Amino acid sequence: MVRITERRAGVVIAAAILAALTGCTPTSKEATMTPHEARDTLVKTITDTAARLPVSGWTDSGAPSVTDCDANGAAGAKYGYFYRASPGTDFAGDAKTVADYWTSLGISVRTVTAPDTAVYGTGGPVQTISFQTAPGDYAISGTSLCVPGDVDTLIDEQAGD
After folding, report:
1. Closest by alpha carbon to 143, among 124, 157, 160, 161?
2. Are 119 and 109 in contact (CB under 8 A)?
3. What is the pLDDT of residues 92-136, one digit of tens each?
4. What are the pLDDT digits (tens) for 9-47?
5. Which residues span the domain enclosing 25?
6. Phi, then psi, of 21 in degrees rounded to 5
7. Nearest 5°: CA angle at 58, between 55 and 62?
8. 127 vs 96: CA distance, rounded Å
9. How many domains, in total, are found in the chain?
10. Based on the domain organization, do 82 and 3 belong to the same domain?
11. Of 5, 3, 7, 4, which is closest to residue 15 (Cα–Cα)?
12. Distances (CA, A) of 60 to 65, 139, 141
């Protein structure tokens, strides 16, 4: 009986050590995602958010823009994207819809109501994301995860599209 308890304690300790070590290895989304996947994930997160709101006529600001970032000490790339439409009429309700959806994606959210209703998010499939209800329109914008990549090459690719 004592041996079984000691064995279980050993297994629990080994599992705890393995979990701690695994948390320190580069298994995050940033380490496994390509720049194109980071871009596409950002755009999908934003357009899927817009699809949940009772407004139409969403337009983007063009192709997602790429900029450099520090990907854990290596050259990295991240994208920015902006999407807008005429505003709805239930700012608080729409903000709740957005916050609930983002929370379901693993995004940490913060909602503010003054001076204008807005939802801000970080984490999950994106670095940052926001939903704004002013001035005079709804806007969803965000930044992708920073992933290893060469910004100059990505800009050249984008210019060739």
Report:
1. 124
2. yes
3. 999 999 999 999 999 999 999 999 999 999 999 999 999 999 878
4. 333 333 333 233 323 333 355 558 999 999 999 999 999
5. 1-32
6. -70, -40
7. 165
8. 20
9. 2
10. no
11. 7
12. 12, 10, 10
pLDDT at 160: 79
Q: Count CA within 13 A, CB hemisphere, residue 50.
A: 25
Alpha carbons 106 and 51: distance in angstroms, whole number: 18
Same domain, 15 and 52: no
Which single residue is written with the structure tokens 């407004």? 55
Residue 62 has phi, psi (to 5 degrees) of: 105, -165
> What is the phi/psi pair of residue 5, to 5°?
-65, -45
Q: For the residues of 24-63, what is the DSSP string, one character each? A: HSS-SHHHH--HHHHHHHHHHHHHHHHHTSS----EESSS
Whether residue 37 is found in the same domain as residue 19: no
